[in-house]
Write a structure and sequence with these properties.
This protein is of the alpha+beta class and 239 residues long. The protein has 9 helices and 8 strands. It has 3 domains: 68 residues, Integrase, N-terminal zinc-binding domain (Arc Repressor Mutant, subunit A, Orthogonal Bundle), CATH 1.10.10; 79 residues, YebC, transcriptional regulation domain (Alpha-Beta Plaits, 2-Layer Sandwich), CATH 3.30.70.980; 73 residues, YebC, transcriptional regulation domain (Alpha-Beta Plaits, 2-Layer Sandwich). The longest helix has 16 residues.
């Protein structure tokens, strides 16, 4: 999810993994299945490798991963999963892009429309305020262990495609253009550097702040999004 603190969001998602492993495994399984359509070989399929990395971070069983790959390659049959993108205005007129992975397009569309309506918003065009960026995060523990604190490492990252590098107490966040994302991630892999998160996101160009009352409404809406089994990810222009 983009918006709020990216590190706070990652911690929240890990807590959700611990509390709702079954639901999270279902979502990651869909992600793996979508990626495996191109190829079931992670060494040749970068997207599949990223999805499997996310599965391992969530402690997803190996059998689940293998079943998801077979579903994607068509070996196990079943309804085909589609990637669906919805745009809308949520609570406090906040803009959202919601990414769904679903085997039932009509159900997903109806449920997302209902969630926006219940929050006082509606589906509508907001993509104009977002641009895709690669976002790669390295935790502070990994930075300390691998001694990634000198300027030379940052220069190597820039050579590998990094557009911006942000250091925080929790770790380092690296931003890339979408076409440089794979190159930058593979550079880190070549250095045996573990990433906390690595994906292409929709980043808002203009952001908004919320009042305390609006934050409470936003939290409820976000909880509803995260609880929906078809919602894979979401992005917002809220600070």
């Amino acid at each position: 999810m983009s918006g709020h603190s990216k590190w706070a969001t990652t911690k929240r998602q890990k807590a959700v993994v611990d509390a709702k492993k079954g639901a999270i495994f279902t979502k990651i399984g869909k992600l793996i299945a979508i990626a495996a359509r191109k190829s079931g070989d992670p060494t040749a399929n970068f997207s599949l490798r990223l999805a499997m990395e996310k599965a391992r971070q969530a402690n997803m069983p190996k059998d689940n991963i293998e079943r998801a790959i077979k579903r994607g390659t068509g070996e196990s049959g079943g309804a085909q999963i589609e990637e669906l993108i919805y745009e809308g205005i949520g609570p406090a007129k906040a803009q959202f892009i919601v990414k769904c992975l679903s085997d039932n397009k009509n159900r997903a569309a109806a449920e997302i429309r209902h969630l926006f309506a219940e929050s006082g918003g509606s589906l509508g065009t907001v993509m104009w305020n977002f641009a895709q960026r690669g976002v790669i995060m390295i935790a502070a523990e990994e930075i300390s262990e691998k001694k990634l604190t000198d300027e030379n490492f940052e220069l190597e990252l820039i050579d590998a495609g990094a557009e911006d590098i942000k250091r925080e107490a929790e770790g380092m966040t690296i931003y890339t253009a979408p076409h440089d994302f794979q190159k930058t991630k593979q550079f880190l892999e070549s250095k045996n550097i573990k990433t906390e998160s690595a994906e292409i996101e929709y980043a808002a160009k203009e952001r908004i702040d919320l009042s305390d009352e609006e934050k409470n409404r936003m939290e409820k809406f976000i909880e509803e999004l995260e609880s929906n089994e078809d919602v894979s990810d979401y992005y917002t222009n809220v600070n």
